[in-house]
Design goal:
ubl conjugation pathway; metal-binding; single chain; alpha+beta; two-stranded antiparallel ribbon; zinc; transferase activity
Length: 135
């Protein structure tokens, strides 16, 4: 994610969700990763000033709602950062079907994408569909 202020890459500080825009090349802007509230408003101990949707918020519900654009950014970011499944069922119709590690299939797809000019297009599409569960 980029800095909400200057759009540069972020550097995480401390062991929690406090982010700082890269001090060497960025603007130094600090904010909460969970709710995007400026860190200058919450500080390290006042959790009542985080937005309602933040896991650190300690105030009464509805007292500090996040701006609508902030909520949509948070939802999109969380959706994009969902971890992939560890394994997929190779043949879901069969009881106790074989399972395959998703990392292995993604590595295979990446390899073929890098070398796809060497593979016939029909075989490539079938192989890719197979490993993405659309066989």
């Amino acid at each position: 994610m980029s800095c909400p202020k200057c759009k540069r890459q972020l550097v995480k500080e401390d062991g929690y969700d406090r982010f700082t825009c890269g001090p060497q090349v960025g603007c130094g802007y600090q904010f909460c990763w969970e709710c995007l509230v400026p860190w200058s408003e919450v500080g390290p101990h006042d959790h009542s000033r985080h937005y309602d949707n933040c896991k650190y918020y300690s105030g009464a519900p509805g007292k500090n709602p996040a701006p609508p654009d902030t909520i949509s950014i948070i939802k999109l970011r969380r959706k994009a950062l969902l971890p992939p499944p560890k394994e997929v069922l190779m043949n879901p119709e069969e009881e106790g079907g074989d399972k395959m590690d998703v990392g292995e299939s993604q590595a295979s797809i990446s390899y073929l994408q890098a070398n796809k000019e060497k593979a016939p297009s029909t075989k490539w599409r079938r192989f890719k569909s197979f490993f993405q569960g659309r066989w």
